[in-house]
UniProtKB/TrEMBL annotation, chain A:
Subunits I and II form the functional core of the enzyme complex. Electrons originating in cytochrome c are transferred via heme a and Cu(A) to the binuclear center formed by heme a3 and Cu(B). This is Cytochrome c oxidase subunit 2. Residues 273-349 form the Cytochrome c domain. The keyword Zinc does not apply. Binds a copper A center. InterPro entries: CcO_II, CcO_II-like_C, Copper_CuA, Cupredoxin, Cyt_c-like_dom, Cyt_c-like_dom_sf, Cyt_c_oxidase_su2, Cyt_c_oxidase_su2_TM_dom. Belongs to the cytochrome c oxidase subunit 2 family. Its main location: membrane. It is an enzyme of class 7 (translocase). It holds the Pfam family COX2_TM.
From TrEMBL, chain B:
It catalyses: 4 Fe(II)-[cytochrome c] + O2 + 8 H(+)(in) = 4 Fe(III)-[cytochrome c] + 2 H2O + 4 H(+)(out). The lineage of its organism: Bacteria, Pseudomonadati, Pseudomonadota, Betaproteobacteria, Neisseriales. This is Cytochrome c oxidase subunit 1. It comes from Jeongeupia chitinilytica. The chain crosses the membrane at residues 39-60, 80-101, 122-143, 163-189, 201-228, 248-272, 284-306, 318-342, 354-378, 390-414, 426-447, 467-490. The keyword Transmembrane helix applies. Its EC number is 7.1.1.9. Pathway: Energy metabolism; oxidative phosphorylation. It is a multi-pass membrane protein. It comes from the Bacteria.
Length: 366, 547
């Protein structure tokens, strides 16, 4: 079987040399895991079979089309069945399927076997970014699109990694089995990394797992692969594979940072600080729909002078926490972030309103 | 008394013209299978243009990276409505329309079994279409969660989703009634001597399709009703917060959805099995094995649904089971393709427009079948699912498959419907134009998918630019070319290339060619005699040696 696959790969690389050369535009991204390599091999093997069948079937058909035509004076021979032929072309395809199914089944089993991972990371889908929690190391962060809005709106030249860059990538060590637990905060997302041969839906209320073992260091890029609302196309996944030593440094750095950065939910904030913090939260989470001007767009309502942003603060808080229609529930933000963004919305856009403290948010969550 | 008898006589004499109501009443109160067939076909063509316009909206946005025309939310509305409208509004009603027009003619029956129900099943469609269109204008806009309507995204949506749910209810009701009509007509109203295994293949595929629809339309209705109650009445079928499971919806949806794929493919098989023998001037090869293939595809289609869900995280055993079952479908599908080729083999082929579309169908459906085979391999599917590879695959089977067969059917039977020949040159131009631009549009999508471009995104990374631009150019050319078809049909109705004889195709032998062109308003009021039925069967069954 191995020999057959090598042969198939060889044949296909001859046929598709041009294809393989211009990696990631016309064919698979260069595989970085053994599973991804298995998938490419399987695909090559199946393409070889398909091309053989294709040539045979189309050859016979076009021979008939060009030779057995009335304009050449060909006369119809009205045969209409032949049991031998019909049995053959039922049985032979079934046998061909068997030689496709066997290697495929082996890859299925390998792909599902997530035992023995050295690191476990929880990937949570949010509308519209990813959150990563290093459950073994006690820190986590959000990973958001880093492409500037202006590039999306075509007012600035696009970076080479347009829509495939994030503010904070997932960092993992090379050569170790990493288990990814996926779940979601709102709707179904899908955590996909083509170079690793990984795609696993992130389903709210459920935890699913997948795994990979990257063979090389480098930065690899994927995108959310399940329609999750308006910014589905704007929540990339970037994985940085580093050496074991670099990974250890990274972990200690993140742990220290997490300790330093932890917002104290009981802290009492001053208006100016909270508005400044809120602006950052707004830009990262709200601006895509409600726009920097607060005027909204399309189906997304304006905040400027809206009943919610200028009415009772409890109503404002409720809608941010629980969502409504296209507005997602923002439970995934921290108390401080929610307090900041609400305060920002009520004291920006020429609004003059209340100051909401994190502890009030904490109370409202209960 | 005398007067009314005279009217009666006149009406009998005036058989050629339609009896009963005239003007709009003829259509609104229609109970004649030909009138209803015509309504279905025009409705579906209108929906095809509407859904096609939305597709062009999608392709315009994807011509270049960056956001050009639409807000992402509206882009999602376009993809969703395009899917729902094409599946439920264009393709399915077109096949029901063809079944309405042709089944009684082909089987030697005077009409469909339930004439009034037939009227009702058509007239449910326009309100359903209206609901879908209106949804664009309600607060929150049209549904934007994809035609698959996966929760929780579809639970979040605005009231456009409710309108879509009601539209799906109506469309489902219409399909079920249409199917009951087809089943009853085929089983009970065949001319004497036409046993089940002597029916034209189109009757067989319509029959099996109708059974599939009766089985799965209620499943979809149940799924969307559960969505509705989750949205408004506090149930938690699909909400994890209340103990529900979002994936449950996918299981139910695809239990409908996979047979649905064959609901759109089987009638196309039937049409091609009518057209190829006609223009090859040879009986259909392997008639009985074709029937078995159709039936086994239909049965297998109930056992493969989870291959749409390999990325949700199924247990390994389920992945293996659904992978093997899916691969198995290649066997009967292959049998059909081989039979079609054997039908052409040693034929006496001519290449009028219907034949071109039928051969185009066989070629491109086979390509779509190959990409389906690639996708059936679970590990590869995990790499490809929700990428443009899937988009390429299902457009090969639905556009080059279902739609091309519908074009072929229209050219094939247009002389019977209108009494006029269509313009052959324009027809051929339409075929080659569609064939070329279809491939320019959809073939590059295989590469986009392999390279990892997710579907349903309004903007994309730069390495996907070239193929997207090509696909967009192709889509606009393909779309504009369909106006040729519209022109050709209207022109044919108005006289076209002259009067059509009752049997415009030398090799056509089924019963519909025994009646005049255009087909009189009422046909086969007395069933054709057995000799005629037997003569009609020559093309599909009997060797010249046997005669």
């Amino acid at each position: 079987m191995r020999a057959m696959r090598t042969l198939a790969a060889l044949a296909c690389s001859l046929v598709l040399r041009g294809v393989e050369a211009s990696d990631s535009r016309i064919s698979f991204q260069t595989p970085q895991t053994l599973i991804a390599q298995d998938i490419v091999d399987l695909h090559t093997w199946i393409m070889v079979i398909i091309i053989v069948i294709f040539v045979a079937v189309f050859g016979v058909m076009f021979y008939a089309v060009f030779r057995h035509r009335k304009s050449l004076g060909h006369k119809a021979r009205p045969f209409h069945e032949n049991t031998t032929v019909e049995v053959l072309w039922t049985v032979i395809p079934a046998l061909i399927l068997a030689v496709m199914a066997w290697p495929a089944a082996k890859v299925v089993l390998a792909q599902k076997d997530s035992r023995g991972a050295t690191i476990t990371i929880k990937a949570t889908g949010y509308q519209w970014f990813w959150g990563y929690d290093y459950v073994d190391y006690g820190f986590g962060y959000k990973s958001k699109l880093a492409t500037p809005r202006k590039q999306i709106d075509n007012t600035q030249d696009k970076d080479p990694h347009y829509l495939l860059e994030v503010d904070e990538p997932l960092v993992v060590p090379v050569g170790q089995k990493v288990r990814i637990l996926t779940t979601s905060n709102d709707v179904i997302h899908s955590w996909a990394m083509p170079a690793f041969g990984v795609k696993q839906d992130a389903i709210p209320g459920f935890i699913r797992d997948t795994w990979f073992k990257a063979e090389r260091e480098g930065t690899f890029r994927g995108q959310c692969s399940e329609l999750c609302g308006q910014d589905h196309g704007f929540m990339p996944i970037v994985v940085k594979v580093v050496s074991a030593a670099q990974f250890q440094d990274y972990v200690s750095h993140k742990q220290a940072q997490a300790k330093a950065n932890a917002d104290d939910p009981n802290k009492i904030w001053a208006m100016a600080d909270l508005v400044a913090r809120g602006q950052k939260v707004y830009e990262a989470n709200c601006q895509a729909c409600h726009q920097a001007s607060g005027m909204g767009s399309g189906p997304f309502p304006a905040l400027v002078n809206s009943k919610i942003a200028t009415g009772p603060v409890q109503g404002h808080l409720h809608i941010v926490l629980h969502g409504k229609n296209a507005m997602p529930a923002w439970q995934g933000l921290s108390d401080t972030e929610i307090a900041a963004v609400i305060t920002y919305e009520r004291n920006h856009f020429n609004h003059v309103g209340d100051l909401l403290q994190p502890k009030d948010v904490k109370l409202a969550r209960k | 008394m005398t007067a009314s008898t005279e009217t009666l006589h006149l009406q009998h004499a005036d058989h050629q013209a339609h009896s009963g109501a005239h003007g709009w009443r003829r259509w609104l109160y229609a109970t004649n299978h030909k009138d209803i067939g015509t309504l279905y076909l025009w409705f579906s063509f209108t929906m095809f243009l509407l859904g096609g316009t939305m597709a062009l909206g999608i392709r315009a946005e994807l011509f270049q990276p960056g956001l050009q025309f639409w807000h992402p939310e509206f882009f999602n509305q376009l993809t969703t409505l395009h899917g729902i409208i094409m599946v439920f509004g264009a393709i399915m009603p077109a096949f029901t329309g063809l079944a309405n027009w042709m089944l009684p003619l082909m089987l030697g029956a005077p009409d469909m079994a339930f004439a009034r129900m037939n009227n009702w099943s058509f007239w449910l469609l326009p309100p359903a279409a209206a609901l879908l269109v209106i949804s664009l204008f309600v607060p929150g806009g049209a549904p934007a969660g994809g035609w698959t309507l996966y929760p929780p995204l579809s639970i979040q949506a605005g009231m456009g989703m409710d309108l879509a749910i009601f539209a799906i209810h109506l469309l489902g009701l219409s399909s079920i009634m249409g199917s009951i009509n087809i089943v009853t007509t085929v089983l009970n109203m065949r001319a004497p001597g036409m046993t089940l295994l002597k029916m034209p293949m189109f009757a067989w595929t319509s029959l099996v399709t109708a059974y599939l629809l009766i089985a799965v339309a209620p499943v979809l209705a149940g799924a969307v009703t559960m969505l509705l109650t989750d949205r408004h009445f506090g149930t938690h079928f699909f909400k994890a917060a209340g103990g529900g499971d979002p994936v449950l919806f996918q299981h139910i949806f695809w239990f409908f959805g996979h047979p649905e794929v064959y609901i759109m493919a089987l009638p196309a098989f039937g049409i091609v099995s009518q057209i190829l023998p006609t223009f090859a001037r040879k009986p259909l090869f392997g008639y009985v094995s074709m029937v078995y293939a159709v039936c086994s595809i239909a049965i297998l289609s109930f056992m493969v649904w989870a291959h749409h869900m390999f990325a949700v995280g199924l247990p390994a055993t389920a992945q293996l089971f659904f992978m093997f079952m899916t691969m198995l479908i290649a066997v009967p599908t292959g049998v059909k393709v081989f039979n079609w080729i054997a039908t052409m083999w040693q034929g006496e082929m001519t290449f009028e427009t219907p034949m071109l579309f039928a051969i185009g169908f066989v070629c491109l459906f086979t390509v779509g079948g190959f990409s389906g085979l690639v996708l059936s391999i679970a590990p590869i599917d995990i790499q490809m699912t929700d990428t443009y590879y899937v988009v390429a695959h299902f457009h090969y089977v639905l556009v080059a498959g279902a739609l091309f067969s519908l074009f072929g059917a229209t050219y094939y039977w247009l002389p019977k419907w209108t009494g006029h020949m269509y313009n052959e040159k324009l027809g051929k131009l339409h075929f080659w134009w569609s064939m070329i631009w279809f491939n320019v549009t959809f073939f590059p999508m295989h590469f986009l998918g392999l390279a990892g471009m997710p579907r349903r995104i309004p903007d994309y990374p730069l390495q996907f630019t070239d193929f997207n631009s090509v696909a967009s150019v192709g889509a606009f050319c393909f779309g504009l070319g369909q106006l040729l078809f519209l022109y050709n049909v209207i022109n044919t109705i108005r006289g076209g290339a002259g009067r059509a004889p009752a049997r415009p195709w030398e090799g056509a032998h089924t019963l519909e060619w025994e009646v005049a062109s255009p087909a009189p308003h009422h046909t086969w009021e007395t069933p054709p005699d057995e000799a005629l039925v037997k003569k009609g069967l020559r093309a599909q069954l009997l060797d010249q040696d046997h005669e």
